[in-house]
Amino acid sequence: MSYINFIEFNFNDMKNILIKAMAICLLNMAAAGSAQNTRFKTKNPYYSRTSTTPLKVSNSEWKKILKPELYQVAREGATEMAFTGKYSEFDEKGTYYCAVCGNPLFISTSKFATTCGWPSFYQPMGKNSVKYRKDTSYNMERTEVLCGRCDSHLGHRFDDGPRPTGKRYCMNSVCLDFVPFKKK
Ligand code: FE
Questions:
Q1: Are residues 129 and 148 in contact, defined by beta-carbon separation less than 8 angstroms?
Q2: How do the domains of the chain map onto residue ranges?
Q3: Residues whose CB is under 5 A from ligand 1 (ion)?
Q4: What pLDDT was estimated at residue 27?
Q5: Which CATH number does 59-180 carry?
């Protein structure tokens, strides 16, 4: 191999490595984008993990933004099938945000194992995380849990939870957006 050929060989090698690195970058960006695309039809201008401004957005507007599976539960109060949600059996450490607006809702340390089929927590993250509303549908008297910022339906609160609160916040996975704690 002459000196010139040797240089060309290394240049081609470098080019291939760069092309592969760029392809991996693009794939990672697509994966991050698809996490948003699983919930939203279009860009969600109301989504923020830091804003505490209450949102008053009509359901007709949310219907344009949210994918049907999220819209039906969050805005029309439907319940996802037991044992089908992605967080019903899930114990990673991190924060759960509202999937509609990004409001911080729960921390994984308050999540506990249940056999009920939905992710369950014994307390919300802060005083602005959730709101409550009396729900008398299906001839039952229950406490509905809503997002404290956007009023989306999240699930219900029951009185059969573990200590220290004795409450069980029984949530729909589709309404939660999990973000793992950053590794130190
Ligand atoms: Fe919300």
A1: yes
A2: 1-37, 59-180
A3: 98, 100-101, 103, 147, 149-150, 152
A4: 46
A5: 2.170.150.20
